Amino acid sequence: MPDDMEFKVAAPLMCAGISIYGGIVKAGVPKGGSIGIVGIGGLGHIGTQVAKCMGYKVAATDVKQSALDAVASYTHSPDVLLLATGSVESLLQKTEEIQSGAYPGLDATVLATDHPAAFDLAASLTRKHGTMVLLGQPEKGITMSYQNVIYRDIKLVGSLVADTAQAQEFITMFHENKLHVEVTEWKMEEAEKMKQAYLAGKGNGKNVIVMD
């Protein structure tokens, strides 16, 4: 950990950060290819920056315009913003400028949300023979259309976190490129309030409890 990195910044990097970094690595897309980060929350807002620094063309996808606006304001911003309330056809059209293969869609998508509907959306945005990396863990399991996955020969890859060496790579990348992590600070006695805010879907980025 760099000497000038604050603990409140490092804490979410050791959870959300290494989770999204490991997922992007597992996508196995050659540099210059396209990656979609689906879900611009605690993991996704870090992932869009990381993917850009790794040399990818990046599409950020979320149902909240505010989340897309936030990542668009970062130094390492996505190439394309996809508001998920639009039709799949309109979203695919927006990805045309960053498509690198012979088929419509993105080389890979990384699922950084638990929302059930996001999985089929991500499959629809992934090109034929492309890859989906699954990080989200819906309570009732993952459901996707077989037409999206089987008929288009999409590879599904599960990912949890990065290994130790990758974690060090990620921290170095984060620090050298001055990436941003959105942090909301709470006191220990506010833990229940923090939990309720999280369950209500309020706020962006990661929650951090700071102990005096």
Automatic annotation (TrEMBL):
Task: Please name the GO terms that the record assigns under molecular function.
Answer: alcohol dehydrogenase (NAD+) activity; metal ion binding
Instruction: Give the matching Gene3D superfamilies.
Output: Medium-chain alcohol dehydrogenases, catalytic domain, NAD(P)-binding Rossmann-like Domain
Q: Which Pfam families match?
A: ADH_zinc_N
**GO CC annotation terms, alphabetical:** cytoplasm
PANTHER family registered for this protein in UniProt: ALCOHOL DEHYDROGENASE 1-RELATED, VACUOLAR PROTEIN SORTING-ASSOCIATED PROTEIN 11
What sequence ranges are listed for the domain Alcohol dehydrogenase-like C-terminal?
42-174
Give the UniProt keywords, A-Z: Metal-binding, Oxidoreductase, Zinc
**What cofactor does this one take?**
Zn(2+)
Write the protein's name: Alcohol dehydrogenase-like C-terminal domain-containing protein
